[in-house]
């Protein structure tokens, strides 16, 4: 026997599942929950806890009909809090530990050695990317593995890649993909956006499905570019291990990981680069295209041609925002530079590495 639809506490009209407003009187179905969330969010804001307030306001937004005045007001509040959170230093850049030197082991040289070292040095200086980057995020990385969907889909992908490339390379590749996805998770948590745990898809990588969506192009850019930023850290870590040990498998992991993250920087559709590019003003898009062209001249990495074509198309489009996002711009161009040179790491071969 089907259960009876709940009645509106104000007018008694039966309310179908999923409705946010009463069809009879127009009252909010979840008014009590909205009051509770709004009170908690205001208290968090007064206590200078913008991340907590942001999470609560996002939850409240789910109980309001899109297009309503209340929905617009809370949306503006979310955008304001998001700006405050973005101005706070991310925990991923809290470490001041010195970067490890890559000049001591010559076994895996760059095709463009001097330029590559300069690009990596610039990136270390800008983002403070060192091995302690991963160490400071160890708790989050371990927490992600406690999710059954993540762990078991990771094991499945590991088996597929193991069959094709051997267990050493397969394990490093899966870990590299996992770190990339957890970069998205970290950014989503920072902005209070609900999402699923990473789900691996053998042969295609992994995905994180959003349950809520970024409020602004700037926020979307932070979430999108966080994956390649963490992926770059993983590739740099693998390369440093290769330099220290001389093991070809680590060099292969670093090179393939860098190439995968560079591919994700394509400014197209829902790829990470597309999400980053949507926050760039037209002049910044042209400048990013110029950086991509220079990177191609220096490295001859063929993938950069695709990035350049897509970047030029975006620069010519009419959808560019008027306001510039300097953080997204510098993150994007420095990622392009560093990943382009990392993708040129010379390794004996990938099969059976």
Backbone CA Rg? 23 Å
Major beta sheet summary: 2 strands, antiparallel
* First-last Cα distance: 61 Å
- The helix/strand order is HHHHHHHHEEHHHHHH
Structural class: mainly alpha
Q: What number is the mean pLDDT?
A: 80
Helix content: 55-70%
**Number of domain units:** 2
Tally of contiguous helical segments: 14
Q: What gross morphology would you assign? A: globular
Strand content: under 5%
Strand order of the largest sheet: 1-2
Low-confidence spans: pLDDT under 50, at least 5 residues? 92-117, 125-130
Number of E-state strands:
2
Describe the structure.
- The chain has 353 residues and is an all-alpha fold.
- It is built from 14 helices and two strands.
- The protein has helices spanning 31-46, 50-61, 69-87, 113-127, 131-136, 138-145, 148-165, 167-190, 217-245, 248-264, 272-277, 282-299, 303-316, 326-342, and strands spanning 199-201, 205-207.
- The chain has a two-stranded antiparallel ribbon.
- The N and C termini lie far apart (61 Å).
- Residues 92-117 and 125-130 have low confidence and may be disordered.
